[in-house]
Protein 1
Amino acid sequence: MDTRHADGVVITIGVFDGVHRGHQALIAAAREQADLRGLPLVAMTFDPHPLAVIGPKRAPTSLATLEHRAELLRRAGADVVEVLAFDEDTAAMSPQDFVADVLVRRLGARAVVVGADFRFGHRAAGTLVTLEDEGARAGFSVVGVPLAGDHGQRWSSTATRALIEAGEVAAAAVALGRPYRIDGEVVHGDHRGRELGFPTANLAASAIAPVQTAPPTVPSDGVYAGWVRLLDSPDAPAMPSAISVGTNPTFDGLERRVEAHVLGRDDLDLYGQPIGVEIVDRLRGQLRFDGADALVAQMCEDVVNARAVLGLA
């Protein structure tokens, strides 16, 4: 990691999980500082999540893949996204070493913009005051940004994650400023949906629970309205979908899956392609039906309801 610019850079720092509206407000403040100085804005994030190293049992599920996070940071106003590999060596760095090695030597900081509750360095010993003191010595300014929120509650990744896990994806979209999205590769499933007249794009199990990187936050079991995006074709229009999350209890399924039926399309061949499944609103919980006929009748109703939610009715 080395993003030194001839005249230095403005840096904003955070995990930025999900790049929710609080993060967006921070980046907007950093963008303003960068424009005032005529300098590039660097958004520095960490991978994996620091808790995956210092407290694995407390490590959260993710709200965006690293690639999606970088895309969202650039969309929010960052010129460059720098990913600092968070490992035991990074965790052991003192606040002073972090400033000297990462912010000054590697990046050439001229200004650093962080949230008012920013903590850094070994055992989170560094505070905003620490950063200001180190900046005064190293020759960069520090701007602390008040935490953004709504109705007395600040935006947070933890609260957003809890909303998604509870199936309250519409409320989560308010916090994110966009629908929540799960990315993954389309794989073969049981092909039962096609047999029933509702073919689905199934996300790979590794997208739901990968071995090494943080698994995505998955909504509670049920049926949702949303959109499917082709990640290799970013200019292609999003496709309206009815999305199932769960184990398919009608057929005694055991594996938890995310499956998207693109409305009105039975001609798609998406196997092996990366897709993003945007989950807009919950239609119903997961149900067990007496047989295929009852399930198909409910799926027809789900399609009607999904179209209404998505403004297509």
Protein 2
Amino acid sequence: MSGSDDPWGKWRKPEAVAPEAEAKPVATTRDAKPDLVAIKAKSGPTVNRENRPKMKSAEAAPAKAKRPAPVVETPVAEDKPVDPTGTLGVRRSAPREWGKLPLRGGSSLRKPSAPKAAPVESVAVSAPKSVWANRTDRPERAARPASAPKVAVVRDGPPPEGVRLSKVMSERGLCSRREADLWIERGWVFVNGEQVSELGTRIDPQSSEITVTQDAKKDQAKAVTILLHKPVGYVSGQPEPDCVPAVTLITAENQLPHSGGPEFKPWMLRGLAPAGRLDIDSTGLLVLTSDGRVAKRLIGEDSDAEKEYLVRVSGELIKGGLDLLRHGLELDGKPLKPAWIKQLNEDQLHFILKEGKKRQIRRMCELVGLHVIGLKRVRIGRIRLGDLPMGQWRFLRPDEAF
């Protein structure tokens, strides 16, 4: 075969290989296996390793002379290696310079990092304030200006004259202070014929004439007052854990039939609140109202409405205990108002009070050696419990007042 017809000629080595070291390539494909018998026949008889004479490495393989190092051509960046058709190979990426790792976004460019600053001693950074105590080179601080003393603000001019309009309306029984402020904001109040819509307006309580519009009267007519015979086990005010408020008894089914009041509507419960306490272990008359005038009459600061109770007790009354119950006891560091108390029999007392502190009767009886085992309220002001069944309620009639 001529050199021009040999496709591998340009890759052959310039030096000829020794004939004894020349060997024919053996095909090693998956389909064809080499003939081992033929290989053994060519190689000659087997020589025992122990009987084989020892030779130096240079004499053992004279034909294997040192070959010159192959010349490696530097690849050009512009030339892209192309795999021959029909062959398999691993495509390697272009070599990159040391220290330049690709960024997460796929770019191999990285901004040059700023040189790191020399480490600073921790003592200079985190020195405590006490370090400056014995230093003579401590910088002097500028003197802080002394804070001006607080002076009470005195308003110029004479003090405001008159009384707040909402207070005058409450004292005259037109409405509560809350309702008065609401009506003033809505423009429903007139003083001496002039409309007043500013909160805090002061007037002369003696000579001022106050009138309200029909809207205010309609709004007040929606307020209701309910009389309930509360059973034991219901709380009158805010419900405590595992307790049921008494307002849950105000339903159409629990209304006293033929009581003469209006038909019950769910909207009537809006703003309904108890006017006076009655603890969970007590029973009797409980008033719930959305009318500010009624609430002021019963639980206002200057209220003198009487509350009447029938009390069943146990224990032995101390000497002079009845007189102490009438006047002479104090609760929470404050003396109690005089009360009217009568002993009906050995285990029953009759109380009439003009105040209503928390669990007042029970605490009063404990101070004189008695224990309350039953308490029932039968009257508030001029309204009596009467024959109202327990658990039922009725409206306050127009001809009734406390």
Protein 3
Amino acid sequence: MNELQVDNLHVAIGDQQIVRGLGLTVPRGEVHAIMGPNGSGKSTLAKVMAGHPDYQVTKGKITMDGEDVLGMEADQRARKGLFLAFQYPSEIPGVTIANFLRAALQARLPEGEELEATEYYAKLYEKMELLGMDRSFTSRAVNEGFSGGEKKRTEILQLAMLEPKYAVLDETDSGLDIDALKVVARGVNTMRGPGLGVLLITHYQRLLNYIVPDHVHVMVAGRIVRSGGKELALELEERGYDWARESAGEMAVTR
């Protein structure tokens, strides 16, 4: 099955349990949004999916197209088609964007096969134009001295170039003004299609005005407490996370 599936996931860091029995399925071709307050475990989920070593999975599993993700090294997950856009992208001094992306694409090719330079740069410039990025960006070190908006555009450029099967976008709207948000959203929307499943992690409904999700999930205290259509995000914006907590408690009582 072409889907990214999280089944009864429990995650701890040290003695602290952060994710508590989370279940989620993101099929390719759909955009799912996870909303939740600070400390709910949203970014922990993203990091565990990507293979961050500081987090311990104590129970449950994550599969991608039926394959066990947790049994893979981080680079293997990426080669298999899982992409993570970080909330706080790291700087990589001395490595230009052009060389970074070229190395990432080269790593996916069979041994002995070389990336064709002309085709690579044609594709790179096409994607940069889509995101409103000047070509001079290709000679800048990855994220070094970048504004918040420039860092997020660079992340989306990586997404566009690598063409993964599943993209987890962790707080992509963090630190963006409205113009930068629109540019990033346009890039994501251009890539929507049957070959890509997207998991958007966000605090705020505003991002979902521009990247309209197929499904919205509310995460509180390490688990999904409500799921619904795009209208759920509007209801959450109006009523707040206390409403989500209370309604989750009511649901538990009636079960």
Protein 4
Amino acid sequence: MVGVVGGLGLVMLTGWLWLDAVVAIGVALNILREGWRLVWRSSQGLMDEAVAPEVLATIDQTLAGFALEREGAEIVRFDHLSTRQAGQRCFVDLHMHLPGQWSLARAAALRANVEQALMAAVPGLRATIQLLPTNMEADAKALPPDAMKTGS
């Protein structure tokens, strides 16, 4: 609006008719630029992005509090950490490696404690933790032959 009135005012003051066209082109370019910014910001709210570096540092610090090593051997460790943010919600997916001889109840209790600590450290965070035995990697090509046997 200001551009249109300003363009008319300049034409009336100077008598140069071409000023109106120049101001109109400037207004049109500004509308295109602001429209592009609006569409870009709106689309970014719909896209998943990695969490901010300070949020990732908080997640790493929280997990470090649960990592356990004894006599040079890792008892509890975390890997394959993946984060994303969709709108205001943050997500973290990771693997938690535990000794294979632990009971399912003990492993699940520790996982619940880790999830609670992560969600307390990062408000709005959703954590998904996969439990794995310490000696197993998630990307193993094949299970040992006796893993497929069932009891009679």
